Amino acid sequence: MNVSESLTALSFPIGQVYAQDSDNGAICLFSTFIPNDIITVDSMGYVFLTRSLDYEQDSQYDVAIRVSDGELESVHPGQIIINVIDENDHNPVFTQPVFHGRFPENSSPGTLFIDVLASDMDTSPMNGNIDRYEIQEAGLPFYIQNIPDGSAIISNSRSMDYETNRRDYVLHVHAFDSGGLRSLFPAQVIITLQDVDDCGPRFSRAEYHASVKENNPISVFVISLLASDCDISVPFRGIQYKVANGQGLVHIDPTSGQVTAAKSYDFESDQSTTIIEVQAFDRDGGEIYGVVSKYWMLPNRINGLPFRLNSSSGELFLTRALDYENGDTGFDITVVAIDGGSYLATATVSISILNENDEEPYFLTEEEHNISIPEETFPFSIHGLPDNVLFHVKAYDSDLLEDGYLYYNLSTYEIFSIDSSGYLYLTVPLDYEEKDQHQVTVSVGDGVFVARTTISIQVLVGNINDHPPVFHSCLDGCCET
User: Fold this and answer.
1) Which of 25, 167, 172, 176 is most buried (CB neighbours < 10 A)?
2) Do 293-352 and 362-462 share a fold?
3) What backbone torsions phi and psi does residue 235 show, to the nearest 5 degrees?
4) What PANTHER family does UniProt report for this protein, alphabetically (predicted)?
C-alpha cells in the first residue's frame, strides 16, 4: 500500500484485505499479529492508520496480520507492506538566523564576500534539495548567486564609495526547496561597508608664499600650511607633513603643518626666492588592503584543463603541450583570490590559443602520372575536369585556419600553370613535331613547410595529321612557275 505521509489517522481506509473460509457463512475477523501503533484492521478488512506517518523517520512499514472465524485462526499470517510517500512538508531553514559580511569600498562588482546556507528536513531530492535563494529587498546594490551545492553567495552589483554611500545594509534572504516551498523565516544578512584609504590628502592651495626678515631667530614662524583628506575613518584622515627638499631652510611640524625657520637668514646671501616642496600624507590604521595572500582556481570548473595556478604569485602555468588541431582553441578559467583578511574576489581568465603552423603538408596523389593528349587541341576537356585542365593534384595540411592553406608550385611555367586548388592547366597548344613529351614536377607548401615528396607528371603528346605534304625539290619543266 502506498500512503502519503500527510494522511491523518483514522480519517478513511488506506486499503482493504480479503480472506476466505471454506465453512459456509463463516465470518472472518482480522487483527494484527503483533500489537502495533501504525494500523488497525476492522472486521470488514478495512485498514486504517492509527497515527500519522513520517517519511523522514521511516519510509516503509511491514505489518503482519492474522484472520480468524471465531474458532480457528489462520496458520500463516498475512503481510501488509506500507510504502510512505514523501510530501513536501518541511520548509527550508537557514543554518543561522543572521549572517554578517564586510567588504571594502571600491570593491569591483561581483566581489564574493558572504555565503548563506539553508537546509530542508525533507529527505527526498524532489522536496529536500535547496533550489534557489532570493533577496527580498529590491533596488539594493547586491545580488545573490545560487551554487549547485545548495548554498549561495551574495555579491555587490556595483562599486560603492564609503564617503558617499550607506555604510550598513540589512538584507532578508529566502530559500526555496525543489518543491517550491519557501522558508518561513528569512535569514537576515547584515552587510557593512568598510572604509579604505582611497583619498589622498590635498593642500588648500597649490602654492604658498611667505616672507621672513633677515637675522631672524631660529624657529621663528614662517607660514602655516593646511591639507585635508576626504577619508572619513580616523586612521585614514590623519595628516602628517614633511619637507621634501627644504635644503635645511625650514622645519615643519608633522602634525599641525606649521612652518618655522631652521636657521637665521641673511639678506645678502639668502635674498633669492627659494621654492620648498612640502608633502602631506595620511596615516592608515595598519590594515593592508590590496595585498593578495592566496590564489586558487575553482575546483569544479577546471577538471581536465591543462593549467596549474601558483597559489602565492597568481601565475598560471601549462601542465602539457597544447595542440590547436586537437581542440585546444580556448579556455575560460575562474580564479579566486583572497587577501590577508576574509575578502574574496573572482576573475574569469579567457585564454585564446593561437594556431601555429606546425604541420607539414603531404600529397594525397600518387607520385607519378602519365597523361596523353593530342597535339593542337586547345581548349580541350578531360573527362571529369574543367576545360584546359590536365590533372588535379591533391594535398592536405593538418593545420587549421590560414596555416592550412596550400601553395602549389611547378618546375616550369612555360606551358603549364597550376592554381591554388591543385588544378594543372595547359596554357598553350602542344605541337608533336616540336616536342612529343613534357615533364612537369609539382611541389606543395604551406608558407613554412614544404612537402617531402613531389608529384611527377609525364605529358605525352599525340601526333595528328595537321601538316600537308610539301615538295622538297622540282624537276626542270615539271613545276609551275
Assistant:
1) 176
2) yes
3) -60, -25
4) FAT ATYPICAL CADHERIN-RELATED (PTHR24026), PROTOCADHERIN FAT 4 (PTHR24026:SF126)
| Predicted confidence (pLDDT) per residue in 320-369, tens digit | 777 766 766 666 666 666 544 444 555 666 666 666 767 788 888 888 88
- Rounded to whole angstroms, the maximal C-alpha distance in the chain is 157
Cross-strand partners of 153 = 115, 145
* Complete DSSP assignment for 239-256: EEEEESS-TTSEEE-TTT
Q: Which CATH architecture has domain 293-352?
A: Sandwich (2.60)
CB of 2 closer than 8 Å to CB of 86? no
The CATH architecture to which 202-282 belongs is: Sandwich (2.60)
Q: Is-contact 274 222, C-beta < 8 A?
A: no
The three cell numbers locating residue 395: 594535398
Please calculate the CA angle 59-78-66 and round it to the nearest 5 degrees.
115
- Of 2.30.30.100, 3.10.20.310, 2.60.40.60, 3.40.1000.70, the CATH number of 93-194 is 2.60.40.60
Contact partners, residue 1, CB within 8 Å, separation at least 6:
14, 15, 47, 80, 81, 82, 83
* CA contacts within 13 A on the Cβ side of 73: 10
Question: Residue 422 — left, alpha, or beta (φ > 0 → left; ψ -120 to 50 → alpha)?
Answer: left
Asked whether 97 and 173 are in contact (CB, 8 A), the reply is no
Helix (H) or strand (E) holding 368: strand 368-374
**Could you say which architecture CATH assigns to the domain 2-85?**
Sandwich (2.60)
Nearest-10 Cα torsion for 297, 301, 303, 307 = -40
Count the alpha carbons within 13 Å of 256 in the hemisphere toward its beta carbon.
9
Domain 362-462 indexed as CATH 2.40.50.40: no
Ranges of residues in the chain with a pLDDT under 50 are 271-276, 284-294, 299-303, 339-343, 481
Integer Cα distance of 473 and 40 in angstroms:
138
* Residue ranges per structural domain of the chain: 2-85, 93-194, 202-282, 293-352, 362-462
H-run or E-run covering 289: none
Report the alpha-carbon distance of residue 79 to residue 74 in Å, rounded: 12
* Angle at 296 (CA atoms; ends 294, 297), nearest 5 degrees: 165
CA dist., res. 449 & res. 146, Å (int): 51
